Amino acid sequence: MASTRVVRTPLILFVEGPTEGLFLEQIKRVYSGRLAEKKITVGNGNGGSAGSVLLELKKKYLVTGSSETGALVLIDQDKGLDADAEAILQEYPSIKVAFSAPQCLEGLLLDLLGDLLPKGKQTSDRLKKHFQDKYLGSRDQVRKHFKQKREELFPESLLDEKMGSHPILIEVSSFLGLDKS
Questions:
Q1: For the chain, what is the total number of helices (H) and then of strands (E)?
Q2: Structurally, how many domains does the chain consist of?
Q3: Residue 130 included in any domain
């Protein structure tokens, strides 16, 4: 008897840097059971402008794979979209952009933890410093510390609570099809 091969829908979650990638890997891990029919790739660029992040996505995945593969790109709100980003979005309509807010990924993470700085103090640098000092204990080796603490900081119970109410997580959930599960 021949086995049937399950065709999984390919999706790409792409972010500016490795820390953002670790956060999306945590979401992917927590919801892996509900995402079994999807082949989700989490990738990251090397920071920089929105255009450079989208160019990295294009080079790593869209040129070599299917240009029709759906991709959600998380970009820091304080960067916005530049002309290069707009051109790539025109070329690849399957790419959707969500902005980490307020300001950056660390602002998003602090918001999820209920520990945002007051509005007048929400600069990217201050949000990064506050998150790294308070939750990671250090500004050195951020990726290593976040990798070790992400499950503790963002357990399934917190993600479940925020997935239907936080605007950015609603976008991620909708893109992944979690809102239909």
A1: 8, 4
A2: 1
A3: yes
Among 2, 26, 1, CA closest to 154:
26
Strands 95-100 and 70-76: parallel
Is residue 174 a part of any domain in this protein? yes
CA 29 to chain CA centroid, Å, is 13
Angle between helices 18-30 and 142-153 (to 10 degrees): 20
- Is residue 3, in this structure, part of any structural domain at all? no
Enumerate residues 6+ apart whose C-beta is below 8 A from 124: 76, 78, 103, 104, 106, 107
CA–CA gap between residue 175 and residue 13 (Å, rounded): 9
Tokens, residue 37: 């029919």
Strand partners, 75: 99
Chunked mean pLDDT (size 10), the chain, 181 residues: 72 92 95 93 92 95 80 93 96 94 94 95 93 86 91 96 93 89 51
Distances (CA, A) of 82 to 41, 115, 149: 25, 30, 33
Structural domain contains residue 4: no
How many other CB atoms are found less than 10 A from the CB of residue 128?
Answer: 20
Residue-number span of the structural domain to which 142 is assigned: 9-180
pTM for the whole structure: 0.89
